[in-house]
Amino acid sequence: MVVLRHGLMESMSLIQEEIFNQSNQKENIMSIYTKEEAKAILEKALSYSKADGCELNISGDIIGNIRYARNTVSTAGINSNIQLAVQSNFGKKVGTATINEFDDASLAKVVARSEELAKLSPESPEFMVPLGPQEYDASKMYSEATAKITPEFRAAVAASSIEPAKAKQVTAAGYLEDSAGFEAMANKRGLFAYEKSTSLDFTVTMRSDDGLGSGWVTRDFNDVRKFNPEEASNIAIDKAVSSREAKAIEPGKYTVILEPAASIGLIRNMTRSFNARSADEGRSFMSKDGGGNKLGEKIVDERVNIYSDPLNDEVPASTWSGSGLPLKRTQWMENGVVKNLTYSRFWAEKNGVAPVPFAGNIIMEGGSESRENLIRSTKRGILVTRMWYIRNVDPQTLLYTGLTRDGTYYIEDGKIKHPIKNFRFNESPIIMLNNLETLGEQTRINGNLIPYMKIRDFTFSSLSDAI
Amino acid sequence: MKRRDFMHLAGAGAGMMATSIPILGNTICEQQLLNPGMDVAAKKVLADVALNTAKSLGATYADARIGRYLNQYVFTREEKVQNTVSTESFGVGIRVISKGTWGFASTHDVTPDGIKKATELAIAVANASAKIQTEEVILSPVKGHGEVSWKTPIIKNALEVPVSEKVDLLLSANAGAMENGASYVSSALFMVNEQKYFASTEGSYIDQDIHRIWPTLRITAIDKSTNTFKNRQGLGAPVGMGYEYVIPDKSEEIKGGADVVLYRNRYNMIEDAIAGAKQAKEMLTAPSIEAGKYDLVLEPNHLGLTIHESVGHPLELDRVLGYEANYAGTSFATLDKWKTGNFNYGNELVNLVADKTQKHTLGAVGYDDEGVKCKQWDLVRNGVLVNYQAIRDQVHMIDQTESHGCCYSQSWNDVQFQRMPNVSLEPGSDPYSIDEMIKDVEKGVYFVGRGSYSIDQQRYNFQFGGTLAYEIKNGKITGLINDAAYQSNTQEFWNSCAKICDVNDYRTFGSFFDGKGQPSQVSAVSHGCSTTRFNGVNVINTGRNI
């Protein structure tokens, strides 16, 4: 298989992508194997195994992208790839080898190489014997329409940003990436898993030509038919225009309305830290006074309910984890109480509990209030449409710092009064979710469902001149 | 990024990094790292296939990069090895200008036929793009270098050192930490070797062998009675060196304030782990800082990150021009400010230089990824903004004729583009030590090592924490303090620079996986400086109760 990739940072156009597609059609098709094709390769490879255990992961995808800036396309590309990873073990000595050729001789070679590496490796004390056969739900992540996205479509998306931007004296810089792929795994104990998926991620930054305003929008879908690039780009253009000539207000504690694109960073960072091991070891915000973890404790407002569900129609996710565990609906927080923490297979066995893998999506239950209603019911507050450069300051309290960006507005007496200059914040999602005022409607954001939220006493610590 | 592109390292000793790191290429046996790879003469023949094919198809310029990229990573925690992995990636990337337009294609089929096909594709891409391009590529002139080579000046190739020896080092460091009060410790070694062959129609055939190494440590101390924990990162830096970097040498140690041991071109990982455990324990009971204005004394392994974020990134020309607006952002250091010739980035003490030649740094190479011989140039001189970072097709936009030589690609199958060179603060010219600097401070904080960091998209407002923070009162360090972070504005900050220690204190900080572009590429870069004092900076208290 030839793996080709192209992409230039400047002066590239869409036409080249067509050429690329034409010249690599065969390779592209080869990158997505059917369940039967994948199974045949994996079974063939397993037949060469001489180790105690052998587990295989194969995945392939075709990723297309287009990037534009300064109201013109700057990069376009297609990347097609496929890879097989073989993990062999002799006792707790483990070796992994990878390859991207699948003829019999190559398969025999990669299996032998993984065995050679395993024999040379030091013991991995936390190695777990591969799982036996499992039952998986059928994944909902694949959309034929997304898999068939063409260069013309990507060009049209870019044009749908650039043309309306130019008309309003705004400059567009955006990026669209779509992918179609498959993943499969199998092991000597009879486990087999397979799924196909597609995704589309779009972001665009619109800056007013006078440099005084900036707006941004993000959209992501598994099924491209839900994507309306004009609608998305126009939101960013409106923000660029409406955020011009922002006024400075004093930093401090404010009631904020957080759009899902603003809160996702903090919510995602919090849920990623729902880890039993670090909590049990005493080095997490989930560590309990006197030892152990906070499972069963109420740590945020009782209206907070967060779960994962790979079968959710709006935000479908993988139905199996990297170690082959089935992924099912998992409740992380219920009425503000910690219901589950992730347990690796090693940590679960050590503690005599069932493993809890981390899931591919986060769903935070919302309320019925629209964004407009949340604004209408706010006497004095700030509308935050995006947060950026979020970094952990203190893992003990889950304190994060970051900045607002691309459209921040002052609300008074139920109305947006004027744009304001950006703030740096220092806030913990735990404190934020204890200061919950109102939950609004949910929106899909980065593969998750997050509601609009009104929060009191959100801590802004300084002003930024950035636009 | 897809699942298979990353090695997941939950809880691994990757220091301040994210818990995933990119895997480039296929995993291989440790012994295969020592395979010499393709002979230079054979590479020249193959590169000429690309150049001749491109010329015969009408290209006005072509370059070929035949690259073999080797990586080895070793991860441990406490007394356990978590993972060791060696990878290799080999292929060729071909870039052409045809009809005034760039085209690029790459292949791992490094044969005359594979290269010919990839070159034809690159030409086809350029010709197709030419139909709609409105501005022809203008390349600054560059001299053909003929057949030349460059190698990172290493003493001991880290890839030749057995994994078992590396594991022993990491486990010894871990043991040192555990025996001195650490509750947990993670450590890792990252090693990179780029074997790059570059050829261009300008008449250059450049063979380079580039080495980098990064030892990391994360030490955790826990007080169960108070349910408190503190982390202390290692004080080593990623460097452009061989395995000799982790072989201790007392003459490369510097005694910092509060007797903290700091490292120049040799790192004593075991000693640092022992000290780190003691300091992490001390942090458990240290007082919380009172927020307010303080004079900051910033140690090089800390200040390097502030330089990276507040000087390195805003002076990348593509950011200034808006090409990165949707990802990393733009820059406050706009062309109109630069054109005035008197934009004061900092006060007259501040001299910031870009550099691709400094020994032991991550950015040091002989030639960049478009065949330009590397050099040093001024970015800020006596406080005034004087230049940006630009490559061959950019320098004409700032009315210059010579590329700065800072073009880089993370691998053969990614196109090269402008990346940050080393950006460093020149040391003070008068003799001045850390001890003298601390003595001169009435109310201050001494920050050591990298900590939390965040900066806005135009690089005005930033906030940094440190690995260690010590309070200074009336010229003396009183002890460690918790919850300290400083906030400032780039121009204000560099104008508050009060004094810089002399060259005896000069060291480099490094960033091993700096990201830029969409799709994103990583690069490695160092930042040198001596301990520097900044007056009257706002320090906040980051302590919270949850």
CATH topology of the largest domain in chain B: PmbA/TldD fold
Overall mean pLDDT of chain B? 93
CATH A-level architecture of the largest domain in chain B: 2-Layer Sandwich
The overall average pLDDT of chain A, rounded, is 92
Report the CATH C-level class of the largest domain in chain B.
Answer: Alpha Beta
Number of strands of chain B: 27
Question: How many alpha or pi helices of chain B?
Answer: 9
Largest protein-protein interface: A-B, 104 and 96 residues
Structural class of chain B: alpha+beta
Number of strands of chain A: 19
Write out the CATH superfamily name of the largest domain in chain B. PmbA/TldD superfamily
Number of domains of chain A: 2
Give a short summary of the structure.
The complex is a heterodimer of chains A (about 475) and B (about 550). Chain A contains twelve helices and 19 strands.
Properties at a glance:
heterodimer; A: 467 residues; alpha+beta; PmbA/TldD fold; 35% strand; disordered N terminus; B: 546 residues; 2 domains; eight-stranded mixed sheet; five-stranded mixed β-barrel; 9 helices; 27 strands
